[in-house]
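Thread: "does anyone have the structure for this chain?"

Original post by V.I.:
We have the sequence but no experimental structure in hand. Need at least a predicted one for the grant figures.
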Amino acid sequence: MKAEQRSPAASEPDGSETRADVAELEQALSRLAYLLTRARRNELITAAAGVPLDRAAVVVLRQLAAIGPMRPGELADALDVEAPHITRQVQKLERAGYVRRAADPDDHRAQLIELTSPGEAASSRVAEQARQGIGDALAHWPPDDLHRLAALLHRMLDDFVAHSGADGRPATPAGARPLTTEQETS
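Reply from O.Q.:
Generated one for you, tokens below.
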């Protein structure tokens, strides 16, 4: 039985329905993650946007657009990757003219990575292409369903982030909302 067909009143006292719902959700999220992280999808979006970057560089570009200038270490933490990965992606983005390094006004020994005007425009074009694809796929959905889905996804992601911070490490820098899967891979 699909999760949307279950009645809230049909809840089992042993929690079996909740476990089944969680299993359905995990399966749907796995499928969604696969669809959103396919290299071919990124290629189509970046080609349509005129932004010749691979998926990893797009994630960094979009993160900087979402949060603003960051130190490389903060960027690595926000994306939960190792520092050398950020170094490679920043170098790629610098060569493309999408980012630049600037002195951190709070500590002149440190550097911030910030988007250039072409980087901001590139990120906007990628985001618009990603939104266009989502909009096309869900065009037949009623607006209320789209709104409800967006609200529930944000709620779920906030809970995931809060849960992932249980190891004592902040889940995001300075209370910033992390990118969603769609944003990361677009």
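V.I.: this helps a lot. Strands lie at 99-104, 107-115.
O.Q.: and Confidence is low (pLDDT under 50) at residues 6-10, 166-176, 180-186.
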